[in-house]
From TrEMBL:
Gene3D superfamilies: 1.20.120.1630
Membrane topology note: Multi-pass membrane protein
Keywords linked to the UniProt accession: Membrane, Transmembrane, Transmembrane helix
Pfam families per UniProt: PEMT
Parts of the chain that traverse the membrane: 9-30, 36-56, 84-100
UniProt key word Transmembrane: yes
Location of this chain's protein in the cell: Endomembrane system
Domain of life: Bacteria
InterPro entries in the cross-refs: Metal_cation-efflux_comp, Phopholipid_MeTrfase
Name used for this protein in its record: Isoprenylcysteine carboxyl methyltransferase (ICMT) family protein
Length: 147
């Protein structure tokens, strides 16, 4: 399937945020020095995504969004969130928005979050449900989509 991968969409979204920040910032919601709190979210988001990805690598599972899953991962961060890598991306983009602070950057961040939920997570959930059936439904009952 020829779709944009989530990390690529994250980079494109942050690029759009930067362009809007410098061309049409609209209104600054978060101002200096409070905008530096965004760095905390960026670091935490990056860490969560890396930990989730490393678990897949350790288990020798593809992290490619559109590959058919071979294993239902329910340990590590996956016992707290069904989508820790996406959660990390969301924290990263929210941190980027906080750092920039403008309303226009926030709009892009919100569009990114909607795209993650509707365009990737729900599609993956359908695939996991078809592949793992009852085991996935049991996992869904125990672990929330985000946190």
């Amino acid at each position: 399937m020829n779709r944009i991968l989530p990390p690529t969409l994250l980079i494109i979204s942050i690029g759009c945020m930067i362009v809007l920040q410098f061309t049409v910032p609209i209104y600054y919601i978060v101002r200096f020095p409070f905008n530096f709190s965004g760095i905390v979210f960026i670091v935490i988001g990056l860490g969560i995504s890396i930990i989730g990805s490393n678990l897949f690598q350790k288990l020798k599972i593809s992290v490619m969004t559109f590959d058919e899953p071979s294993v239902l991962v329910t340990n590590g961060l996956y016992q707290y969130s069904r989508n820790p890598m996406y959660l990390g991306f969301v924290l990263f983009i929210l941190g980027s928005w906080l750092f920039m602070g403008s309303l226009s950057a926030l709009l892009i961040a919100l569009l990114f979050i909607v795209a993650m939920d509707l365009g990737y997570i729900r599609w993956e959930e359908k695939m996991l449900d078809r592949k793992f059936g009852k085991a996935y439904l049991d996992y869904k009952r125990k672990v929330r989509r985000w946190i």
